[in-house]
Structures are given as C-alpha cells and as structure tokens.
Amino acid sequence: xxxxxxxxxxxxxxxxxxxxxxxxxxxxxxxxxxxxxxxxxxxxxxxxxxxxxxxxxxxxxxxxxxxxxxxxxxxxxxxxxxxxxxxxxxxxxxxxxxxxxxxxxxxxxxxxxxxxxxxxxxxxxxxxxxxxxxxxxxxxxxxxxxxxxxxxxxxxxxxxxxxxxxxxxxxxxxxxxxxxxxxxxxxxxxxxxxxxxxxxxxxxxxxxxxxxxxxxxxxxxxxxxxxxxxxxxxxxxxxxxxxxxxxxxxxxxxxxxxxxxxxxxxxxxxxxxxxxxxxxxxxxxxxxxxxxxxxxxxxxxxxxxxxxxxxxxxxxxxxxxxxxxxxxxxxxxxxxxxxxxxxxxxxxxxxx
Length: 352
Description:
- The chain is α+β, with helices and mostly antiparallel strands and about 350 residues long.
- It has two domains: about 1-125, no CATH class; about 135-350, Lipocalin.
- Helices cover about 15% and strands about 50% of the residues.
- It contains five helices and 16 strands.
C-alpha cells in the first residue's frame, strides 16, 4: 500500500512540474547509460519485457522513444538511451541537461516500473504471450569465384597448374539467434565449376562439375565492432592424379575442417558498416581409392560491407570480397589452391 501511494505521488509530482515548466521532467531514472558490450535489443528487452521484434515489441518501443538514433545497431558505452514514456515527444536532450546522469538505471526503479506498466498495457494479450527468447533468420547468398590449383607429382616431378573459369555458387544458411550476441548457423553451399585446359598435350577427364559443402558455425559478438566464430565444415576439394600420359583425372574429395574465424568493423556510420574478416582452419586427412590426402591448412582474408535494415523482416544485406589459400598434399603429389571471390548475402528474419 505504501509503495502504491509513493508511485501515485511520484506521477502527480511529475505532471505538476511538466505543466508548470512546459516540458517533461528528466531525471536519472528516465535514461539508461549504455555499458560496454551491450546492444539495444538487450536493453529494450530488459526494460520493457514481452516480445522483442513484434509490431508492439520492446525493440519498437525503445526506437520510438529514441528517434535521434541514426543507427540503432551502433550504440556506445556512456551513451544515454531514453526509456521513460514521459519523454517520448521531446527533442533529443542537451548535454547540459544530462551532465549529472552518470550511472546506469537500477534494475528496479519507480520510473522503470511505471514505464513497464505503460508498455504492457499497450501490447495486445496475444503478443504479450509470445516467447521470443530464440529468434531465427534465413541467409541467402550468391557469389562467383576464380581459383588456381597447383601441384607437383612427387614420383616423376611433373608440374600441374589448373585455372578455373568464373565459378558461380549458391549459399543457404539457417541462423538461430540464441540471444543478442550468440548465433548458431547451419549452412549449405553448392558451386558449379569449369576448368580451363592448361596445355595442348593433356586434358581433363571432367572439365566441369559441381562441388558442395555443409557447415555448422557458432558465432559470438563481443562488442559492437568485434566478433568471432568457431565452425566445423565438410567441403569437397578438387584434387588430381595422372590417369594416363595425356589425361589428368579430377577427383572431388570430401574434406572435414574445423576453423576459427573473426571479423572487425572498421567503419560504422548510420545503418552501414565496413570491416575486415579472416579465417584459419585445419584440413583433416581423407582417402580416395587411389591415394591418401594428408593433413593441411586453410586461410581466408577479406573485407565486407554491410547495410543494416531497421524493418522487422529484413535484417540486412552484406557483400564480401575474399582471398583463400589452401595447402593440402597427397601421397602422390603436392597441392595448393588459391581462390579469389565475391559473395552477396541477404538475411531475412523468419516469423518463428
């Protein structure tokens, strides 16, 4: 009962000051000060509760309270985020008005409880009952790659250099967003390759074909700029052996690969960012009917440009330019593979 009386007195006092001064009363409880490693969706969920990405969800509420945010995906430690409904119609606060606001809003405070009550009343019962602890999205990608395979026959010392034509590829991934910073991805890739004849005396048994691969990836976002990933992939690699004096046999071998990746956003502006990415993996041994494939290594370096979407169903578009170097020998030859490629990804949020 005493708590209810106190809240009523708080609301009445705020209304009196708002009417007499001509603008809403701003206190430390009206704002949240961003701490290192936090993102806006987590703050919204912690403040308002209920569904996050629905039409009346917590993310939409916090965006409506902070229209001055040019890119809601980019917030920084020390930044003030408006969380009180009493300030919803005001212009962005001036620095001198917030000079005394230096600490995060406590988990339990009268202003937050009032804001949460108001937010709950505005959310329809059907939406409030939704469980959005786990979100998912679909990632679709298209790309093209050129690659060069070089090798030396360890028996007779003959050297081989295989060049490809532009090889188009398709990527499909299912992202499970466990929380705001953790994502699991199950993906599949298909690529159609075409090889160039490297001299007039030798040819391939198959100059065109299809490569495929599957992958499982765990990604963790440590800050608004940096994240890392751990993956396990199965991909078909292109190997070769001399079938005769004039024919070179192309072999597709499924190679398993654990890998560690990372990405860093160098430039961030409004709804766009650009940065660098890298990956290092170990190529595990395999066997064909003709020879043994030894343990090797894989490296990737590239740059990316990403546009974040603020709509509910579209999460963003990303482009990547990358260079790959693989070294994996066999029992009958040495082999290295270099790739230069471009990929475009579109991410669409699933309704479940």
